[in-house]
């Protein structure tokens, strides 16, 4: 019996060490991906130029300094921040709704942001205090937060029933898509082109201000997620089990959806809707790190950031001289990755 317990403890320790090593691998992969993203592009900036430019910007030619600090660095960093935001929102949403297909898209938050952007582009309303250049991200943010508010109301009045929340999110997706389609119908051709371009995501629109805002939101929300890792892990054992141990599931669900709404709203309001990161990032982390949210939550943040960073590299390198919208890349990568994960789980079940 003693040997069996010792063997079990040794096995648990080995699994824990392996998962910690995988978390480290994700972090190292993220740093390497960031470096490759900074090197990707038509200007010939090698590893030495990038390192020199980061630590001593004045040593670079003015042209290369502008390319590195005003173009490539904001694009690369916003990819990390947005990927981390969407994946963090996705992993928590999947856990509290007990649905592997749950994500910011399933809840209709991204579609609502798309509708807000469509209103800004087609109707061009004037908002007090907000400058004309900021109306599009402001309305996208406003509509996304409004969607989050509606979901919170549904949770409040349905007693936190997860099926009701998911069905309402799907209904919200259809409504937002229908209203965006109506905007297409009345818009001029140029406006339709702008709306379509925004809906497929573009990291190149972001500057340093957007990088700081999205990063600050992630860094503000992450401690709250880490605080809840124990109860989120308990919830994976079943809602009844969590309730029997004193977890207020409805309150937890309310706070998680609020966090997911804010994370998604700020992530998509600057770069447009980017598919699959909030869905696939958490699944990759689960496959590598299991259901212990002490590792899963930081793992999902790293996996989402890494996935969008790799996508950002591909946008610049697939077609020389052309930047492909990142939403197209994430969809092309996300579908086969998601299918392989689903088949992998099916074989193990």
TrEMBL record:
Primary localization class, coarse: membrane
Record GO biological process: siderophore-iron import into cell
Domain of life assignment: Bacteria
Tagged with keyword Membrane: yes
Membrane topology type: Multi-pass membrane protein
Gene3D superfamilies: ABC transporter involved in vitamin B12 uptake, BtuC
UniProt xrefs under CDD domains: TM_ABC_iron-siderophores_like
Compartments in which it is found: Cell membrane
GO CC aspect terms: plasma membrane
One Pfam family linked to the record: FecCD
Keywords for the protein's UniProt record, in alphabetical order: Cell membrane, Membrane, Transmembrane, Transmembrane helix, Transport
TM ranges: 72-91, 103-127, 133-153, 165-187, 211-235, 256-280, 295-315, 322-343
Coiled coil: none
A GO term for molecular function: transmembrane transporter activity
UniProt similarity note: Belongs to the binding-protein-dependent transport system permease family. FecCD subfamily.
Protein's name according to its UniProt entry: ABC transporter permease
Organism: Oceanibaculum indicum P24
């Amino acid at each position: 019996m003693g040997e069996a317990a010792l063997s079990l403890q040794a096995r648990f320790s080995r699994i824990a060490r392996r998962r910690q090593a995988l978390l480290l691998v994700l972090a190292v992969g993220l740093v390497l991906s960031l470096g490759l993203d900074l090197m990707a592009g038509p200007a010939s900036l090698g590893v030495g130029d990038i390192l020199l430019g980061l630590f001593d910007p004045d040593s670079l030619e003015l042209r290369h300094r502008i390319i590195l600090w005003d173009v490539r660095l904001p694009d690369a960093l916003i990819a990390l921040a947005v990927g981390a935001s969407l994946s963090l929102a996705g992993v928590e949403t999947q856990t509290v709704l007990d649905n592997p297909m749950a994500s910011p898209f399933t809840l209709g938050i991204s579609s609502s942001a798309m509708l807000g952007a469509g209103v800004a582009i087609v109707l061009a309303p004037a908002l007090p205090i907000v400058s004309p250049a900021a109306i599009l991200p402001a309305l996208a943010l406003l509509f996304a937060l409004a969607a989050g508010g509606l979901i919170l109301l549904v949770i409040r009045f349905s007693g936190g029933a997860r099926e009701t929340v998911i069905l309402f999110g799907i209904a919200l997706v259809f409504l937002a898509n229908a209203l965006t389609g109506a905007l297409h119908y009345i818009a001029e051709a140029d406006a339709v082109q702008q709306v379509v371009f925004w809906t497929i995501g573009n990291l190149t629109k972001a500057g340093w201000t957007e990088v700081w805002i999205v990063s600050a939101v992630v860094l503000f929300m992450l401690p709250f997620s880490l605080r809840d890792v124990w109860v989120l892990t308990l919830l994976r054992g079943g809602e009844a089990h969590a309730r029997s141990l004193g977890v207020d599931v409805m309150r937890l669900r309310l706070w998680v959806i609020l966090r997911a709404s804010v994370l998604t709203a700020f992530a998509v309001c600057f770069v447009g809707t980017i598919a699959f990161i909030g869905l696939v990032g958490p699944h990759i982390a689960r496959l590598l790190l299991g259901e212990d949210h002490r590792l899963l939550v930081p793992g999902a943040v790293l996996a989402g950031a890494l996935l969008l960073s790799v996508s950002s590299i591909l946008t610049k390198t697939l077609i020389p001289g052309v930047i492909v919208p990142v939403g197209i890349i994430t969809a092309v990568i996300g579908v086969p990755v998601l299918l392989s994960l689903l088949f992998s789980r099916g074989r193990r079940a």
